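tool=predict chain=A
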Amino acid sequence: MNAEAEMNDNADIDLETIDLDTLERDEYAFPGPLRDQLVEAILEGRKTTTSSLLAEYEHDHEPLPQVGKLAVVIDSDDKPACVTRLMEVKIVKLRDITDEHARGEGEEYDDAAGWRKAHERFWGSPEFLEEIGDDSFTVDDDTKVVCERFAVIKRL
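tool=predict ok
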């Protein structure tokens, strides 16, 4: 389904009166080229899924995202790019990531193996390890991944 069709499925939301200041901020990757590429992919409708580790939520003492959540996607310049609505949340083991989810990430992964290689590199990066406060953190087949599917409901 394309972004326009998704937007039409949101009749219960008054898109004209959404108060951006009350919405959660979604920041993809760290500021810089990767974030900018991801935001562009979201705006173009190529990125409709995202992944994070359950360990991130546990580290930050944050609740898991809930279906229906509205969020403002932020670019590297800290500017709002669009509003998204969370359509699905699943927790799966790293070994169970599907090709469909990987392709939905909008980064031209052919399959889950390519997705996994790139994400393991990100989750092992010094920036990520600093973010979670554990420089010995590693992932394996049993690591739990929070898989989200979302739709753009308003471009900003």
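The two ends are 20 Å apart (CA to CA). The CA atoms of residues 24 and 71 lie 5 Å apart.
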